[in-house]
Amino acid sequence: MHSLIIFASGKGSNAQAIIDYFKANKLASVALIVSNKADAGVLDIAAAEGIPSQIIGKQELASDNFIGQLQSYNPALIVLAGFLWKVPEPIVNAFPDRIINIHPALLPKYGGKGMYGQKVHEAVLSAGERESGITIHHVNEIYDEGSKILQAHCPVYSHDSTDTLAMRIHRLEHFFYPRTIEYLLENI
């Protein structure tokens, strides 16, 4: 069974979707959840699921000690699920092509520093886009510029609000992220 580490900063709906998917599919399990926020909902999910969790500060994130701790789990993948900090280069180098992220837009549009969550949906709506979606990609040292693994599209309607668009995007995320992880694990 493959080991996954999830990094998240928020409520953890994608983390929950991944955990639930791999409960039924025994290909992988989540070994650790890492958050940069002590009040992140994803930590409640970790506790409820009996998954070890860790709160990390910016200084610790790039430390040899933390990288060694991550390596001790021998993760097949590190999965970013709403983690709002840039992954430092030492972690990227320690896990080449084994860190993935999900972005709530069709990259390269609406990506980069500061583009996350509702900010992305606001930008998509303000630009009058007729389509949005998600991008799952490898992580490198530049925000949202790693090689694309998968994009899934959805319509943007003239009557959409950021909330209605976000709901449509979340459905794509919850369906495609666990299945993309499964695909990657089957082809390691």
Notes on the structure:
This protein has helices spanning 13-24, 41-49, 58-61, 64-72, 89-94, 117-126, 162-186, and strands spanning 2-8, 28-35, 53-55, 77-80, 99-103, 131-138, 148-155. With 188 residues, it is α/β, with parallel strands linked by helices. It has one domain (2-186): Rossmann fold. It has a 7-stranded mixed β-sheet, covered by helices on one side. α1 links the parallel β1 and β2. α1 runs parallel beside α7 (162-186) and α6 (117-126) crosses α7 (162-186). The chain is globular.
What is the rounded Rg?
Answer: 16 Å
CATH class: Alpha Beta
- Mean pLDDT level: 96
CATH superfamily: Formyl transferase, N-terminal domain
The CATH architecture: 3-Layer(aba) Sandwich
Computed structural class: alpha/beta
Can you tell me the number of structural domains?
A: 1
Q: Name the overall outline.
A: globular
Bin the helical content.
25-40%
Number of helices: 7
Unreliable stretches, pLDDT < 50, 5 or more residues?
A: none
- Binned strand content: 15-25%
Could you give the order of strands across the largest sheet?
3-2-1-4-5-6-7
CATH fold-level name: Rossmann fold
Q: Describe the main β-sheet briefly.
A: 7 strands, mixed
Distance between the termini: 13 Å
Sequence of secondary-structure elements: EHEHEHHEHEHEEH
Number of distinct beta strands: 7
